[in-house]
Write a structure and sequence with these properties.
Blueprint lengths: L2 E5 L2 E2 L2 E2 L1 H12 L3 E8 L6 H6 L4 E6 L8 H15 L3 E5 L2 H14 L3 E5 L1 E5 L2 E8 L4 E6 L6 E5 L16 E3 L9
Parallel strand pairs: 1-4, 1-6, 4-5, 5-12, 6-11, 7-11
Antiparallel strand pairs: 2-3, 8-9, 9-10
Helix pairs in contact: 3-4
Length: about 180
């Protein structure tokens, strides 16, 4: 069975809808879901992720994470990947996801699929569709090698299920030093 690690996004102290869509879709596929939640003052949102189906929430809550920093977030997601044993990382095709997904793929020596609009998951075999050529053509893609799968998925293609928060099983991540810039 595929183990998914979903990178959660927070805005104004609430989980963004694009993250809820990814969680709902993964849950509907019967996949084992974990999430990584990073930021400042975000610990309370772990229960929302658990209510959406995340069995474990890897949490990094620190004032130094108030402003997105690529190096810190890449390290945090890598730490969560190692601890969770996830075989796939799903991110939203947002500013954060578009910045983080190629960096995660490069760090782990694997490819990444971006801007996915349709996804089929059978065991560890993934078939994805994504638009190309100014959205005039739909490209069907599969990973050709084994290893970690890094996928950024456009929002609005999956429905976000309405659920209630549940007590989260959290694992604290150690906060890496940020870049001075």
């Amino acid at each position: 069975m595929s183990k998914i690690l979903i990178v959660a996004e927070v805005k104004n102290s609430e989980i963004k809808k694009n993250t809820l869509e990814l969680l709902s879709f993964a849950k509907s596929q019967g996949l084992e879901i974990n999430a990584v939640l990073s930021g400042s003052g975000v610990a309370g949102q772990a229960d929302v992720l658990a209510g959406q189906g995340a069995s474990t929430v890897y949490l990094a809550d620190d004032a130094s994470l108030e402003i997105y920093n690529t190096e810190q977030y890449t390290s945090l997601v890598t730490d969560a990947l190692q601890q969770s044993g996830a075989t796939q990382v799903w991110l939203s095709s947002s500013e954060l996801g578009r910045d983080l997904s190629p960096r995660l793929a490069a760090r782990h020596g694997v490819g990444a699929l971006s801007d996915v609009t349709q996804l089929e998951v059978n065991a560890d075999q993934i078939t994805a569709q994504r638009p190309c050529m100014s959205t005039k053509v739909m490209q069907k893609c599969q990973f050709s090698k084994d290893g970690l799968r890094v996928i950024s998925i456009r929002s609005g293609f999956f429905a976000a299920e309405e659920t209630s928060p549940a007590p989260a099983n959290t694992v604290s991540l150690s906060i890496p030093a940020g870049h001075p810039k």
